[in-house]
């Protein structure tokens, strides 16, 4: 609840009666067993407008969802990785047109799989391709040679997760570079492991492990002390259980995904820039507010306003947006720097604002930042194959309609 003291602050307060509907919706999500537990936060004008929670972080143990619950972020890791790259960009340590092969030799002399077989890539994968998902890299799957070979590589990563032969970030990404690309770099947009490669590039450029770079340059300055690539023993009780629903109701999900251990108990050899972080809603809010405030938060400056403006503007050629729009939840959006960016609110399927940006995660974590209204929305839950759901859109509609 915001506290008013001046006329200017009145403009920064949202309709609390409308926002209260969020609590009812979170209860509905848990009472119908759509999720085990969920929490939600809205900030505007630098003030917390509301925080709501519902359900359990651990159904079997009867542990309730709490504000300090820790969540696996999965793809909501990507904006953090993009911010790390922007730090190096500001310092002149990388250029967006640098070939990735300058840092990872596995990306030398890449080939593209076509209907006629393998052919040399027209140009190298560059850092901007990693940030914009135009690299030709894919995620594991069965749809093409790239997806199949990537699946085989990640299966090997998972097989060795707990062994002394666990593959490191750079080892995995160098091997990924030798897999045929799905298309020539820059010619299409396709969601894949680009952010993981970017994490390895950041390791090479910074001379430190990716997790150490994030901790020193982002998490510690922003006081994000519950964010990282694993959950230490003293915090394990706060880590939400992961759940799945494959037609039999909610049941615990225990398996590694994308080379990431589900229990998050030990520091991993592979620090995934695309999916590996855990965080709390308050920690992530600090990162989101830094972006909303154009690089600064609580007297700490991580990036310049010009850099954040560059980071949060659409860079894709409009012709490539047609690939982005193949995802229904991204209707109206373009993409840049590992985030969706709203280009055409009239084409969206929920209330939206031009220039709004953010991303979500495989287990349902969700962020949107609305610079026009100085507003941030965060949603945290842990259910597989969730991403942006109808409930997410309902929450968005409530929040945007509460902007008085």
3D shape: globular
Largest sheet data? 8 strands, antiparallel
- Using the coordinates above, name the CATH class of the largest domain: Alpha Beta
Q: What name does the CATH topology of the largest domain carry?
A: Beta-lactamase
Alpha-carbon distance between the two ends: 15 Å
Oligomeric state of the chains in view: single chain
| Poorly predicted parts | 1-11
**Helix proportion range:** 25-40%
**Overall mean pLDDT:** 95
CATH architecture verdict of the largest domain: 3-Layer(aba) Sandwich
Q: Helix-strand pattern, N to C? A: HHHEEEEHEEHHHHHEEEHEEHHEEEEEH
Folded structure, characterized:
- With 404 residues, this protein is of the alpha+beta class.
- It has two domains: 7-76 and 212-401, DD-peptidase/beta-lactamase superfamily (Beta-lactamase, 3-Layer(aba) Sandwich), CATH 3.40.710; 84-207, 3-Layer(aba) Sandwich (Beta-lactamase).
- It has 13 helices and 16 strands.
- The chain has helices at 7-10, 16-19, 21-31, 78-90, 127-132, 145-159, 169-176, 194-206, 210-219, 281-292, 305-311, 321-324, 390-401; strands spanning 37-44, 47-58, 63-64, 71-72, 111-114, 117-120, 243-244, 251-252, 278-279, 296-297, 300-301, 333-336, 339-342, 357-360, 366-370, 375-381.
- The chain has an eight-stranded antiparallel sheet with strand order 3-2-1-16-15-14-13-12, with helices on both faces. Strands 4-9 form a two-stranded antiparallel sheet.
- β7 (243-244) and β8 form a beta hairpin.
- It is globular and about 60 Å long.
